[in-house]
Amino acid sequence: MTALEVEAKTGVRFSSRSLTVALAVAIGLLIPIQARINGQLSKGLHDGIEAATLSFTGGLILMTLVAMFSPKLRGGLRTYATSIRARELPRRYLAAGVFGSTLALAQSTTALTIGVAVFTVAAIAGQTLSGLLIDSIGFGGSPKRRPGPQRLTGAGLILVAAVIAAIPQLTSTSSLLSILLPALAPLIAGFLLGFQQAMNGATGAKTGSPLAATWANFFVGAVFLAIVWGVKSAFTGGPQSMPTDWWVYLGGLCGVIFIGASVVLVRKIGVLLLGMGSIAGQLVGSILLDLALPSAGSSLSVLTAVGAGLTLIAVATAARERQK
Residue 242, by phi and psi: left (phi above 0), alpha (psi -120 to 50) or beta? Predict the structure, then answer.
């Protein structure tokens, strides 16, 4: 059903941008699911780097299977390779896959140490800062979107909401330093995620295929993580056993959907608004996941729910600002 059909049936008017922001929120719901899956895989393997590698490799295998049956994707990959060789796309855009893999790496190695709430706060701070920077300078060929008062207010609300959501965990620890130092990993990964999305948007626009950018991300990211894991294994030894639960290997599927959708959405609403929408989805999704399938030791706090509510207000505030 199209937006016009919905308007005709309900009498509610929708803008193209509001629907795009709603999709950004929807794909954000996948992140806590992926975090739960990758966290469980990491726990079963006793190795966060191996878990991140397997997650990205699973996404690469899935995208390769899609390429086998999709002439458009194969054509997009040929255009991508030609554009890189001819320098029509900067070769630094190959780093987009590495940037994406750093989030999976941070997720698999520090989320269990510092907790999901603090991890999310740090990643949100990084995403928000990079979103403001990238949209302001027009990185990746996107039009410059200098943030006005509403977007700046929304970005500020996002940061406040994230901190509120993490207060229960921050106040329950005896050593803040033991949490804040590892939190630098998701902060950096969140910052790099904005650049990944901008690069992917440019690649998808050039190749005419969002899936080509997605495949390239998983290929480069999987190779990077395999090298990191190989170096680590040379000193600590290889895997001892593999988890038998099939669902712990579905993290790559979540990543495929998230990255593929982000390639399309980022060109329409910019990195900042895409990040804010997905952040709202992450916090809401975390609450829904804890309610439906609570993990051991987790408990839903009123402050966490308040923080999630504030993110929705922040996104609605930022989305109302007219693009200049």
Answer: beta
Tens digits of residue pLDDT in 247-294: 999 999 999 999 999 988 988 888 888 888 888 888 788 778 877 877
- List the one residue out of 276, 311, 193, 248 whose CA is nearest residue 33: 248
Can you say whether residue 148 is alpha, beta or left, with left for phi > 0 and alpha for psi between -120 and 50 degrees? beta
Contacting residues for 285 by C-beta, under 8 A, at least 6 apart: 28, 29, 30, 31, 32, 33
Low pLDDT (below 70) residues in the chain? 1-15, 112, 116-117, 169, 172-176, 295-300, 321-324
Q: Other CB atoms closer than 10 Å to residue 138's CB: what's the count?
A: 14
Name residue, tokens 């959405």. 265
**Residue (of 101, 123, 99, 100) closest to 111 by Cα position:** 123
pTM comes to 0.81
